[in-house]
Amino acid sequence: MEIKRIFDILENYKTCFRKPDALNCKINGTWINYSSDEYVEKATFFAYGLLALGLQKGNRVISVTNNR
């Protein structure tokens, strides 16, 4: 797959690096695993949420996390 747009990166990731545990997090002391497909789905829904909140081209978004 040729990556031409920023959102092509996730589709490429899902196609080329399919894993059952692509993203992991600890919730209430228990490790939760998300597959490549689930990771891309959650990222897509997050993007839809930003659009629904009115985010537009040129707006700035900051991400504050407790790890990398």
| Secondary-structure class | alpha+beta
DSSP helix count? 2
Mean pLDDT score: 89
Quaternary structure state of the chains depicted: single chain
Strand order, largest beta sheet: 1-2
Strand percent estimate: 5-15%
Query: What is the H/E string?
Result: HEEH
Radius of gyration: 14 Å
How far apart the termini lie comes to: 27 Å
Which bin fits the share of residues in helices?
25-40%
Largest sheet: 2 strands, antiparallel
Total E-strand runs: 2
Form type: globular
As residue ranges, the low-confidence spans are: none
Question: What's the quick description here?
Answer:
By secondary structure, this protein is an alpha+beta fold. It has helices at 8-16, 36-52, and strands at residues 23-27, 30-34. Strand 1 (23-27) and strand 2 form a beta hairpin.
How would you characterize the overall build of this protein?
By secondary structure, the chain is an alpha+beta fold. The chain has helices at 8-16, 36-52; strands spanning 23-27, 30-34. A hairpin with a 2-residue loop joins strand 1 and strand 2 (30-34).
